DNA sequence: GCTACGATGTAGGCATCGTCAACATTTAAA
DNA sequence: TTTAAATGTTGACGATGCCTACATCGTAGC
């Protein structure tokens, strides 16, 4: 009765439990064996689904990007151009604050160093959508004379940077703690308003 | 003659060797024992100088911040206000590109999670200098009517984000690879030009 | 229905790691 | 010169990632 030989849904269970522990302790303290203990399976069981710890983290990252894309997809209801860019940037930051564990994985160089092709392509596609939106905005007159590549660089840096500032503890000291969300929007509006 | 009992300068040797391996492999593959092997001392010798791996990384981070501060200090020759802000932002990005290993340590959440008080205070002081410069610029008329807190948030996000985009491999695909330095300056000028 | 096979889980082992304790050697202060 | 602090060595412990051999389950063909 108790603990059948097969878990039944170990792969998903590993992913969700990993994300939980990831938000408590960092990625450095994420251990496949501890995960196995938490789920009541043997220490080698996770290897059937993720041959390597890097594979687990990669799968988590892929799920994270999908979640991020879904969150920013809601901005498609905004009119194309700079309003949509603004909505996407805000959605990105909101997602990062609501899913700081996933965001941390995506920002971790030691995880991304081993990014699979799937993950890389997903990120490239995400970047391409932003590029297209920038060009659409420029066609509508927004910063028409700027180099699109410069605008893209600026947009990515600003959104990624804002997400990091909002997420990393190290910044929570110097950054004002009141009206965070409001100030974030105001900051983004300096570029996209 | 070979290998005297005391190394003589083990602490410094550990730090420099650690930074070397850090730029080759990531922080996840940095091992105190491997460091000891590289330097020809016993596996426990590093513990005399850094009781814990986190202490080593913290010391590396402190050295990194000092290096970063020195790099941005060169901007003090620029006239105070937005020109100096611009120079500091560019110096920050240049430093990050020239010292990507150190920058990676400073951006690693799992390192900064255990930041010592010394390190935190150093970063707060660095942030304060930027705040002061922003206020000086506003007194001179630059974006006079904006909330200083919003400007600070924007500046930090933009510089940190640009440094990350320039440093992380994951961004090197979507970002154009030609005239990087020029586009970086142009991007920063969108805010500080 | 039965059977063979792939998918999934278990048990044990190996090399490595971080950290600790006990001991050795060197340096420097008293 | 004696003695204590700094620094380095050796050995050990528990934990980890990952490997191999084996056990159990589900299911696709017959």
Task: Give descriptors for this structure.
homodimer, 193 residues, mainly alpha, 10 helices, 0% strand, DNA-binding
Q: How many E strands of chain A?
A: 0
Helix content of chain A: 55-70%
Oligomer: homodimer
Helical stretch count of chain A? 10
The greatest interface between two protein chains, and residues involved on each side, is:
A-B, 48 and 48 residues
Structural class of chain A: mainly alpha
Report the portion of residues of chain A in β strands.
under 5%
The run of helices and strands of chain A is: HHHHHHHHHH
Q: Which word captures the global form of chain A? A: elongated
Q: Compute the CA-based radius of gyration of chain A.
A: 19 Å
Low-confidence regions of chain A? none
Mean of all residue-level pLDDT scores of chain A: 94
Q: Major sheet of chain A, described briefly? A: none
In whole angstroms, the N-to-C terminal distance of chain A is 61 Å
Can you give me a brief rundown of this structure?
The structure is a homodimer of 193-residue chains. With 193 residues, the first copy, chain A, is mainly α.
